[in-house]
Structure formats: structure tokens, C-alpha cells
Amino acid sequence: MYQVYNNSPFVPRNVMNELVEEKLDHLMHLVDMCCCSECRALVKELAMKELPSMHVTCMSEDVHARFAGMAAQTQANIVTAILHSAETVQKHSQHCPVQK
Ligand SMILES: [Zn+2]
Predict the structure, then answer these.
(1) Distance from Cα 36 to the centre of ligand 1, integer Å
(2) Are 77 and 46 spatial neighbours (Cβ–Cβ below 8 Å)?
(3) Are the C-beta atoms of residues 27 and 81 closer than 8 Å to each other?
(4) What is the tens place of the pLDDT at every residue in 27-74?
(5) Model's pTM, two decimal places?
């Protein structure tokens, strides 16, 4: 985990974290799994472990602009990592059964 220093916008941050956040909810709903905060955190944690870190120092608005043109392959890798992690959590998490 990284720390936030003095709320400065110029803090090195892992953009991968934001890219995963952006796609996480959509993909978890897509695979129709439990979307409670615990499962969500697990899927995110696993996906982040599979993906390389991408640290940048810039303000939030820039992040999206800077990575809007990111390689399709990287975008595909993020989706694959999230889906793979979702599948793992779905298989091993017994704490809350699928709600009917
Ligand atoms: Zn759950």
C-alpha cells in the first residue's frame, strides 16, 4: 500500500490501481458473482498481483488522458487478470452464497 503525503496531487501513484478500479465492478457483475465488499477486495487484490505496477506522478485528471491511448494489449491484460481473479474468488469464497 502506498501512503498519501499532505494530500499533494504530485504523489507517485500506481495507475494500474485506478485502471483495475474502473473495470472491476462491471466485470464482476458480468460474471454474476457475489459483489460484496469483501469479494470485491479479494478480486482486486488478486488482479493487482497479476498485473505490473505502473507508477506515475501526476494529477488525477491527467491519468485518464495519459492512458486513454494505452496499448490495447495492456487493456486486454487488465480485463483478463480481473476475470481470472473473479473466477478464483468465485470458486473459493464460501462466505456468502449467491443470492437468488
Ligand atoms: Zn461476497
Answers:
(1) 4
(2) no
(3) no
(4) 999 998 999 999 999 999 999 999 988 877 765 666 566 666 667 788
(5) 0.74
Helix (H, G, I), strand (E, B) or coil at 11: coil
Cα–Cα distances in angstroms (integers) from residue 65 to residues 7, 20, 60, 74, in the given order: 21, 16, 9, 16
CA–CA dist 48, 46 (Å, integer)? 5
One-letter amino acid for residue 69 of the chain: G
Question: Which residues neighbour ligand 1 (ion) by CB within 5 Å?
Answer: 34, 36, 39, 96
User: Ligand 1 mean position to 45 CA, how many Å?
Assistant: 14
User: Cα separation of 36 and 90, whole Å?
Assistant: 12
**Neighbour count for residue 27 (Cβ, 10 Å):** 19
